[in-house]
């Protein structure tokens, strides 16, 4: 077996440490790089938040359109349903504020729920009657 002898590189050929000025420059460069990256990330975060808020607005709009289409197909008076829902919300807030008793709340809520059911039921009956007429 033949071994090849290489010459060893003296340690003086490799710098052991950087000079103080070189270290300071590299530290500043590193700090500047971090600042640039953080500003980009802040920008990207704000854009992401904007995308999320736009997405939420789109979902809200689409759900309102879907509800309106459903009410129109069923023949439900959407204004009447919105009015009943508003009264329910007002009643609930009055209960939370302590303006009415639990018993009064239950009575009034039951009345509003029956009104809502009647409104939806009348639309369902109207749809059934129109389907029967189409089949004759």
UniProtKB/TrEMBL annotation:
Region (Disordered) spans which residues?
1-49
According to the UniProt entry, its GO molecular function terms are: metal ion binding
Bias (Low complexity): 37-47
Q: Which UniProt keywords apply?
A: Coiled coil
Read off the Gene3D superfamilies from this record. Answer: Metalloenzyme, LuxS/M16 peptidase-like (3.30.830.10)
Query: Membrane-crossing residues?
Result: none
Per the record, the domain of life is: Bacteria
Which stretches are annotated as coiled coil? Answer: 81-129
Chain intervals with Polar residues compositional bias: 1-14
- State the name under which the record lists this protein: Uncharacterized protein
**Where does this protein come from, organism-wise?**
Pseudoalteromonas luteoviolacea NCIMB 1942
């Amino acid at each position: 077996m033949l071994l090849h002898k290489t010459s060893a590189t003296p340690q003086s050929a490799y710098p052991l440490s950087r000079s103080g000025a070189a270290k300071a420059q590299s530290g500043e460069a590193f700090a500047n790089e971090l600042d640039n990256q953080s500003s980009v990330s802040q920008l990207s975060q704000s854009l992401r938040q904007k995308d999320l808020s736009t997405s939420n607005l789109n979902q809200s709009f689409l759900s309102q359109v879907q509800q309106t289409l459903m009410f129109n197909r069923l023949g439900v008076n959407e204004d009447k349903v919105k009015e009943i829902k508003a009264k329910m919300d007002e009643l609930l807030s009055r209960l939370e504020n302590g303006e009415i008793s639990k018993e009064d709340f239950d009575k009034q809520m039951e009345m509003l729920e029956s009104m809502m059911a009647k409104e939806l039921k009348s639309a369902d009956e109207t749809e059934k009657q129109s389907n029967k007429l189409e089949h004759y």
